Amino acid sequence: EQLDYLTQLKDSIQPTVRVGIAMGEVVIADNTITGTGVVLAQRLEQLASPGRVVLQGACQETIPGRFPFEYQSLGEQKVKGFDESVRAYVVALKVGTAMPSPVPQVAVAGRPTRRWLTISVIAFLTILFGGLAWLQPWVQREEFARIERMAFSLPDKPSIAVLPFVNMSDDPKQEYFVDGMTADLITDLSKLSGLFVIARNSVFTYKGKPVKVQKVAEELGVRYVLEGSVRRAGEQVRINAQLIDATTGGHLWAERYDGTLTDVFALQDQVTREIIAALAVRLTGEEETARAQVETHDPQAYDAFLKGWQYYRRGAPDQFAQAIPYFELASRLDPEYARARAALAAVYWDSIRKGWWAKSLGVNYREAVGLARLYQGKAMEKPSALAHRVASEVVAYYGASLFGESREALTEAERAIALNGNDPAGYVAMATALLKTGNPAQALEQLRTAMRLDPHYPASYLNLLGQAQFALGEYQSAAATLERAAERNPDDDWTHAYLAATYGQLGQTKNARNAVFIANALRADRSMGALTLNHLRFGPTFFWLSDRAAVREGLARAGVPPHTDWLALVEWLQDDSRFEIDGATVIDATTARSLHQRGVPFIDLSSRYAQRHVPGAQHLEFFYQGFDFNEVRLSQQVDKAQEVVFYHHGEAEEAAHACAFAVTWGFEKVYCFTDGLRAWVAAGYPVETGN
């Protein structure tokens, strides 16, 4: 009976705790602890149900996203003694998180007095909570990052990784805004020559995962890690950020910034300046000037751009199609927003490179080419690193096949790197240009730089690396690299084509034929013809390789035929009737002669203008990227209300694209002489020479 009594008494001493946590002033006076922080914590505790913890919103925003907590919003709460409402959350461990083991039961013998029992309980609670206070098990212990465990050597300047900020908004649809702000912060820091900044692609591999700062620093090879959160409610924006030295675990600074969507650029600038100050980074005069320039002052245009950028970054044809309307909206809201136009050029250009992607955008291949040229030309009016990088890729992809070797691709890549020295895309563009101009060894160096800045690099980097190794005759290394590329991106037909050529050079005939089979199967799925050796001439990808003879030889050993549809290809290239341009009139040589006799101005688009041209024709050379052929230069030569004839010496496609641009720019009476100078000379009409 006594034992039953003690057991009941023991079981009844199990207090249920309610907890309120708040940030605020604490005042200790006359052996009393008080202050607004203490009072607010008491009020929040009253909102908690038994066994629950209620947290002030300001506290919740400071908790790193990697901690295993989940939050239930209680909304804005009016609490006694405070004029302003307080946002509150119920906090709990995430489902599946391990709980501490319960304290083992202790057998009871004898009948202690009630006083002794009370003393025992008090002593137990004192020891328990005293031990907890000393051990602090609720504090997450992190090891410091060890330099010897880092995957890469630390750079000789401050190195930093910006982890994806956590979306603390009640609306999960604001994820694009939070991700966009993180990416912009990375871009702002990347432009500083005194910093080494890990690329967005690599840090976003940690998004949504519980990570340790120490592990991130060791995997990426950096000393500093920035983490934080963003809350957007309508037009209101709050940013919380903290900078951590992973090698010591110390916080260099932590701050909260409040503002509106209109202030978002100033808020981002404040965070960047705090990092610059904390890491003692010295800015050059050019960097100070560049930081003072804002891409757009229209927050709605910026918001539209971020929505589009979210889709573009996903790198799929259907996502590209969803990105375009947002980029177009950003351009309409702010016609001076060059970054939005550069993004449009990038979307269409990437679709052109994939070829079959253009269909997903609702345009055919040639329409995609025209739109890419149009937006690229506009982007270059106020060039950014993105615009220069796209320009470099365009020249590298088409320049060699159309205009011969040139330094234009190298120059544009150099400009991109000068504007953003931590962007791996600039170094990849440089590597591509170097491969095109026959410098694979230098291309390898650029690719290594890109891979260091983006340790979790995409498969396309491996593809280029394999090409460079192939061009250097390092076939074993090239095969290993291209195998990794194919494993990571098995749907890239050109990777399998390169792999086939490499296997062919190694004498691995069976592997080579298997690679050709896979490449052709992928091409068939996209309604593309099977590989032939003539792709070395009409497939611009292969123009990047220094030794095309080695590629032909390797593919020939893999069983790739010299040609299958060569005659059809030639006939198609010579068929000028395939062009129809809305708003322009396609004419033949007879009509062109009649217009010339009436004094209608002719625009010669060829690089061979000096050799011969239609008498009196003005020269405005048309490049793929549209740099020389633009609205300003054309308007200087011809009035928009005036009749004008465009022709080329043999490229009907160039004349058609030029006419499409002219119509888009508002020229009212455009004639497309697709037969060009070739038909003019064949008809016996006179020509001029010289500049």
How many beta-strand runs?
17
Strand content: 5-15%
Percent of residues in helices comes to 40-55%
| pLDDT < 50 runs, ≥5 residues | 100-114, 116-142, 400-405, 537-544, 565-574
Coarse morphology: globular
User: What is the radius of gyration computed over CA atoms, rounded to a whole number of angstroms?
Assistant: 33 Å
Oligomer: single chain
SSE class: alpha/beta
Mean pLDDT over all positions: 81
Largest sheet: 6 strands, mixed
Distance from N terminus to C terminus (CA atoms, Å) equals: 118 Å
Number of helices: 28
Structural write-up:
The protein has 28 helices and 17 strands. The protein is globular and about 120 Å long. By secondary structure, the protein is an alpha/beta fold. Helices cover 49% and strands 13% of the residues. α14 (385-403) runs antiparallel to α15, α15 (408-419) runs antiparallel to α16 (424-436) and α19 (475-488) packs antiparallel against α20 (493-506).
Describe how the helices and strands are arranged.
Blueprint (H helix, E strand, L loop, with lengths): L1 H11 L6 E3 L5 E3 L2 E3 L1 H12 L5 E4 H4 L8 E9 L8 E8 L20 H22 L23 E4 L3 E2 L7 H16 L5 E2 L2 H4 L9 H8 L3 E10 L2 E10 L4 E11 L3 H15 L6 H7 L7 H14 L4 H17 L4 H17 L10 H15 L5 H19 L4 H12 L4 H13 L3 H14 L5 H13 L3 H14 L4 H14 L2 H17 L9 H4 L9 H10 L8 H9 L9 E3 L2 H9 L4 E3 L13 E2 L11 H7 L5 E5 L4 H13 L4 E5 L2 H7 L9
Parallel strand pairs: 1-4, 7-9, 7-10, 8-10, 13-17, 14-15, 14-16, 16-17
Antiparallel strand pairs: 2-3, 4-6, 5-6, 10-11, 11-12
Concise overview:
With 691 residues, the chain is α/β, with parallel strands linked by helices. The chain is built from 28 helices and 17 strands.
